[in-house]
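Each field is set out as follows.
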Amino acid sequence: MNEQIASIQTAALELIAAASDERSLDDARVSTLGKKGTLSLAGALIKDIPNEEKAAFGQSLNAARTTLTAALEEKQTQFQQQADQAALTGIDLTLPARSIHTGALHPLTQIRHEAITILRRMGFALADGPEIEDEFHCFDALNTPADHPARNEKDTFYFDSGKLLRTHTSSVQVRTMETAQPPIRIIAPGSAYRRDEIDSTHLSVFNQLEGLFVDTDVTLPDLKGTLEYFFHEMFGNSTEVRFRPHFFPFTEPSFEIDVKLQRKGEAPRWIEVAGCGMVDPAVFESINGTRKDNALDTEKLTGFAFGMGLDRLAMIRWAIKDIRLLIENDTRFLSQFA
């Protein structure tokens, strides 16, 4: 029997040596070590061998299996080395390595994160709401009369159902006041939609961030201090900030906010960046009507609100001349922010 095992081993080694690829090598393995392979069938004969010879037979069988397994692994390694060498054919290892292009956050995402971080440090919490709104939350609750230009179909995207794409994230402030108990201190970043003609400074969809603070004894100096701190953090401590009287239906008094910036090679100039004001008591009264309580008591509570375009802040921060660059996904432009 030992001679039979030796003969099987010799034949298997010849098959392995003759294998020209991984498939023929696997065929050699199966024909020898498989369930019906020659060495496996020989091992099944151990039951017919006298007991005194079984130990020697088993040792020979195991030795042959070990030898063949090692030969198979050596041949497999040889094939792998040949494949690796073939993969390198034609490659010039002396060429310099290619640079790895790393990704980065979009400039709008960067400015949004920075703005949120600054306001979160001042105690503002994030709030969110639907982008498809109704007229009450977008206009009526904000003391906007029916004949206001913003409610015209030329300015606002309406659906056949009467719903609309929100024109500002002020609707989030309304929904928050409908459910939350004062004090309220929130910011609402998100998309807003208007029928603006697309040009270098306007898009039909833009990114806005609005804020609201409602509590007892909230004053105009609180509003000014909050926004001056915000713009100093955003554009630098030396940035000049001014408040110009303006009109918004939902705040009284109301202001436009400008910052004075100087770009290299240009004279300093004032740039409008936001609108703000003290919440009009009529807004509180309207929301009390939907709440069916007097949680927003106009005799006890005051508040301020503000809103700004994140696209505009990004354009100011990085001196971007055309707002359309922010939506065109041109990697030549976006790679500057990596």
Observations:
- The two ends are 73 Å apart (CA to CA).
- Strands lie at 125-126, 132-133, 164-165, 184-193, 205-215, 240-248, 251-261, 269-279, 302-309.
